[in-house]
Write a structure and sequence with these properties.
The chain is an alpha/beta fold. The chain has nine helices and seven strands; from the N terminus they run E-H-E-H-E-H-E-H-H-E-H-E-H-E-H-H. The relative contact order is 0.13. The structure holds NADP nicotinamide-adenine-dinucleotide phosphate. The site of NADP nicotinamide-adenine-dinucleotide phosphate has 19 residues, from helix 3.
């Protein structure tokens, strides 16, 4: 979805650049294999690894600067209540990431739908208005209808697995109503 919308994408995984060859060939132009540190140097970083891998990955990468917008698409399946009860998994990601401005987004959308957004209304949340606006523009550009939530804290339960905004297929007005009802 990102390359189709004209974004230049660096893609990284755990097994290394060479293993990404087939995926890069499949996606076509606009995507470049990288390591995690290189990918983390982009102005907008999309974090989409199993939640249990986030801490080690971000430690390896090192602090991410405040100029970076870090989209947290992870879901803390199972472990969230116990580990992050006070705040929420994306606030924990923000702490682990150092300075980056974290925006929680795309975690509520199934992978199949990422390939065909078709105007689906999706929530995004973050504490920094400029970072939220950046991600809203990106989501709009790739074909979603983004609806903002004004803080990571407010989105922690509604956007978490089994929360009222998770995995839903609704129009923008209905999503706004659901967000109002859940905050
Ligand atoms: N699947 C969905 O529909 C969906 C939708 C919304 C959000 N999410 C969330 O997105 C995240 C990823 O989900 P997924 O289904 O794509 O999982 P996945 O297939 O298990 O893993 C995604 C990628 O994470 C990489 N990875 C794992 N540990 C890593 C590490 N330590 N350093 C660097 N890369 C690492 C893997 O690299 P290798 O290939 O080299 O192992 C793999 O490419 C999860 O938090 C999930 O909850 C998933």
């Amino acid at each position: 979805m990102l390359t189709r919308a004209g974004y230049e994408v660096l893609i990284a995984n755990r097994r290394g650049r060479v293993s990404l060859g087939p995926l890069v060939d499949e996606i076509g132009s606009g995507v470049v294999p990288a390591n995690a540190a290189e990918a983390a140097g982009a102005p907008i970083v999309l974090l989409a690894v199993p939640y249990d891998a986030v801490e080690e990955l971000l430690e390896d990468v090192g602090p991410i600067p405040r100029s970076t917008v870090l989209i947290d698409a992870t879901n803390a399946w199972g472990g969230w209540e116990a580990r992050e009860a006070e705040s929420g998994s994306s606030e924990a990601v923000a702490r682990m990431a150092g300075g980056a401005r974290v925006v929680k987004a795309l975690c509520t959308v199934h992978a199949n739908r990422l390939a065909a957004p078709d105007g689906l209304a999706v929530p995004l949340a973050g504490d920094d208005p400029a970072a939220r606006a950046t991600v809203a523009r990106l989501l709009d550009r790739v074909g979603f209808r983004p609806v903002e939530i004004a803080s990571l804290r407010a989105a922690a339960v509604p956007m978490a697995p089994n929360g009222p905004l998770f995995g839903i297929t609704v129009d923008e007005a209905t999503l706004r109503d659901l967000i109002s009802a859940s905050s």
